[in-house]
Write a structure and sequence with these properties.
Length: about 120
């Protein structure tokens, strides 16, 4: 899928050790790209680590060929785990990892290691 990402706004939040980015995703003739594709492209664009890049929100407007999204890039995994809600962290993983985490959580087994936040 081809899509272009334009950074609309970028600011550093030193209190939380993250960079907050507002993006515009242009995808003429195709559907909205999934979070993993957006995450990989932003991480490559900003030279950030893929596991510490979180696509927080994608807002699609009906009938348009663009979306607006919010992306947080953290400096360390500890801050990411503290400030990002569990469901947002899980959404930014591949489907097989998501299922594995939900199954481990349902069985009350440890699952934090499955996120891949190596420090």
């Amino acid at each position: 899928m081809t899509f272009d990402i334009e950074i609309i706004e970028e600011k550093k939040n030193p209190l939380i050790d993250r960079t907050e980015i507002k993006i515009r995703i242009e995808h003429f003739g195709a559907g909205t790209p999934n979070r993993l594709e957006i995450k990989k492209k932003i991480a490559a664009l900003k030279n950030a680590k893929d596991p510490l890049t979180i696509v927080h929100k994608i807002q699609t407007h009906y009938g348009s060929t663009h979306d607006v999204g919010l992306v947080n890039i953290y400096d360390n995994a500890k801050e990411l785990q503290f400030f990002e809600p569990f469901h947002i962290q899980v959404r930014n993983l591949p489907l097989d990892k998501r299922n594995e985490i939900y199954q481990a959580k349902a069985k009350k087994e440890p699952y934090k290691h499955l996120f891949g936040y190596a420090e």
